[in-house]
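Sequence of Cytochrome B (Parvibium lacunae).
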Amino acid sequence: MRLLIWDLPTRLFHWLLVLCVVGAFVTVKIGGNALQYHFWFGYAVLTLLLFRLIWGLVGGHYSRFLHFPLRPTQLRAYLSGHTSLHLGHNPLGSLSVLALLAALLFQSVSGLFANDDIASEGPLTIWISKSLSDTITHLHHENEAILLGLISLHLAAILFYAWFKRENLVGPMLHGHKTVATPLSATPLKTSVDGRGQRIIALILLLTCAGIVYWITQLKP
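Predicted 3D structure, token representation.
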């Protein structure tokens, strides 16, 4: 049985976030004039994160945070190997997603207040003291290691599932579907809604989030 798990807005969010995070990392390592692109990638990441937070409330079934299997009983069952079928994120995957979203949100927001002590600074540094900006800049740099660790775990999990469990996690995030061989009586199977109306709502939300981020970056005392 082939089910739609990840709606198009969720899939586009995922891959756009990958591109923007890679772009932000590369441009900050290049430095110099490339830092302007680093800021733009950061604004794009913040826009995508705001969209995902809202989409996690109104999006497709498996994209909603409400349907993440995060109860302690579900986590214990998963770790012990006695668990039901998880068509969306499994308990550990759900925790990983939330941790990544939180770390990326901190990184993108802190970047608004950060500076490089030379010529580049976030658009909201004018609202705080230099010492506070320096502290936030330090945390911004420290969080990079946390982000790299979480991303590494994410990639390791994908490889583990591909090699040892023979489960392709990348494919469904490209085309949205999973093929389920489990009997229908084993678990209540649901599909995500992904019609034209849903996609129009997603586009409006994304544009609204982009407008909010632009407004934030233009704030003046």
